[in-house]
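Lecture 7 notes: from sequence to structure.
We start with the chain below.
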Amino acid sequence: MPPPSLHHINPGLLEVYTGPMYGGKTDHLKDRIDPILHIHDKPYLWVEPSTNVRKLRVPKRIQRHFFPADHPEKIFEYLNDHPQTRIIAIDEGQFAAHSLVMVVEKLLARNQNVIVGGLDLDFRGETFGCMGDLMARAHYLERCYKGKCHYTGCENVSVRTQRLIDGKPAPYDSPIVIVEDKESKKRKIIYETRCHLHHFVPGKPGVRIIIP
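Predicted structure tokens for the same chain:
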């Protein structure tokens, strides 16, 4: 289907914006919600898994709500108190339990317009959480690739998220989600966006990794 109008609610449709880190996924969600609020003053809901602790540049007029990552069905508690809500934005969907897929299906059955943003692949280059199933169900899917590969000297488009631990590519057996604690703070963990050629995951099964 063609790109949805930024200024309209699309009842019963699922829009998914995905890609690597720093690709502009959250910006797409803001661009969808802000006109609905600013121009039409329509009820909306912006939710995120409680795992997400990023400081986002979200306009103050957009209120962020959090639900337990393991219990996305908690979204319905808010909607029960705000039955006029017609558009729901779910950011960082990859952190939510797989039951988010069921929640989204129920929201669509209620004729809600659901917009999801999240990483399609984890640092390993594998499907991240429930995002694969949400992408398969999307009526409109946009992959957000913004910027060049961060690998020195490369001009390719960034399509993957590279995790670096103390300056080296994180091995395949690293946790998918790193919870900040005393041990993690001892290591320097950063993320870059890379092209496919320069995305390195030492120890990944069936893949021979040659790191210059």
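Points to note: The domain at 14-143 is CATH 3.40.50.300 (Rossmann fold). Residues 18 and 156 are 19 Å apart (CA to CA).
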